Amino acid sequence: MRQRGYRGARTSRRRGRAEGVMGVEAHATNERVTGRTWTVRLDPVGRGRADVRVSCSRPACAARVLPSAAVGRTAAVEHLKAHLRAGPAPRPLAYCACRADECHTHIRPAGPRERPAPWRCGGPVVLAVITDREGRWWQVMECCSRCAAAHPTAKIAATAPAPDRPAPADASRSATAPTPTVSAFGPHFSHTGSGDAAPHEVPAPRAERPERPERPERPERPARPTRKRARRGRIAQRFVPYELRPVSLRDELTELGEAFRAYQQRAEPDLALLADLHARKAKAFGAWADVSADTGLRREAERAEQAAATARLQHLHRIGEAPEGEGPAVARLLPAPVQWDHARAVLAHVAGHAPLPGPEARLLVLLVTLRTAHSGTGNLVGQDLKGLPLPEPEHLVERLVESGWLRIAGTAEELMASRPENPTRVDVPSLTPDESDPGPFTFGRKMRPKLSGWAQRVVGEKKLRKARTTAEARLLALALATGADGEGRLGPGGQGLDLGSLSSWCAVGPGELPELVDRLTAADWLAEAAVTDTLLTGRLTERVLPLGCPLT
């Protein structure tokens, strides 16, 4: 019986300890929760249709069908903004939403055989909006600012305030501290303020203290001059020691810690600045390791050097440039800036000297100008004209000949029937140079076929042909290809292009431009396009960036 009682008591004690440990673990796991995430998508309704479907991953949001991609993209962005305005702010104690993936997507190995460096989350919790380059989905993620900075397209929508520090344990312990009492069974402890005392308990008597005689007042001593104490820095969860020498190294580590903490409070990430901070940290920790002979500091310096290389690479990819020794980030058909300037010069000349009105005549004049730009003379075959979206190309050639702008060897019918082995010679008198007039263009004989091939690739692009876009849509594609920056954003600095200039170049009214924009968006030429009263904003899709001539 005694053995059985002893075992039962031991089992109950073990069960009590297990329940206590489970309670502590449950309390610890309830302190932080996984970050929220949801996605707004823009999908086509059907093949060959212009209308799109806008859907949200939140259960209470119903999908909507809108007539065009531009309207759907605007509605998707407004829906996302409404969620951000109405939803709660980011929680300071939330884990990163990407924590389940252990942030493997944020770290790229330096070489094919090197393992990725471990990723450490840090900074305040933010609501980051991530989108793809084509503008087909937008994802809101509750994560730390460091993970948000690792995404090339992330934009910070809100930042959580700093979490309140818990009250010191001594204060809570003193509020419930037991007071000693004396009972019939000896001294024990009972909490104060709990009602009447238990039976057989009498509060312990307090000994009366004798009154102390008053001490005479001491004369005031002169105040000692205070010495200015050096700042005690903190960086990477390490305190910079006061006795660290040289003093310049101690000051550099202190300033670096303050700079990192200030960067974590930024609303928008700056990967170039972050790369510079990590490079300074690698150099400073290397010097610190040399002084103190600490291998942990040496490993920290190596990790900082890897973080600097990763942040710098992410910055170059974000701005569309290539690292040293890797060639251009985008393999463009016209790689040199001088070629981009010549392409814009040809488009400007055709816009100001087209002999006939209408977008079809403008497109044909551009093709003939690029074939005869250097000497005023060139060759054409029937396939060149049949590949353009012209309803009556033969009649249009005859109109150009009647206006005197074009001369052909033979008739328009013979030109349409000519083949590559027997091309038709064409002349443009206004482009023929002489002693008094060298011509409107300054590029040489080898540059002309490059510009002509570029224009043919843009006008005859595969998806534009499959969508059977008209001449004005292809003229707009040419204008956008020469009016975007290195990242594909329209206009200088992504500010947009003037609608008046675009409508004049396409030979259409300003009211017809939104329909052309929708056609290019459906053909995967434009993304995030928005038409206002005066500007067209958006960016070229990644698919057509090689055909672009960036603004310099």
UniProtKB/TrEMBL annotation:
<feature type="region of interest" description="Disordered">
    <location>
        <begin position="158"/>
        <end position="234"/>
    </location>
</feature>
<feature type="region of interest" description="Disordered">
    <location>
        <begin position="418"/>
        <end position="444"/>
    </location>
</feature>
<feature type="compositionally biased region" description="Basic residues">
    <location>
        <begin position="224"/>
        <end position="234"/>
    </location>
</feature>
<protein>
    <submittedName>
        <fullName>Uncharacterized protein</fullName>
    </submittedName>
</protein>
<feature type="region of interest" description="Disordered">
    <location>
        <begin position="1"/>
        <end position="21"/>
    </location>
</feature>
<feature type="compositionally biased region" description="Low complexity">
    <location>
        <begin position="158"/>
        <end position="181"/>
    </location>
</feature>
<feature type="compositionally biased region" description="Basic and acidic residues">
    <location>
        <begin position="206"/>
        <end position="223"/>
    </location>
</feature>
<feature type="compositionally biased region" description="Basic residues">
    <location>
        <begin position="1"/>
        <end position="16"/>
    </location>
</feature>
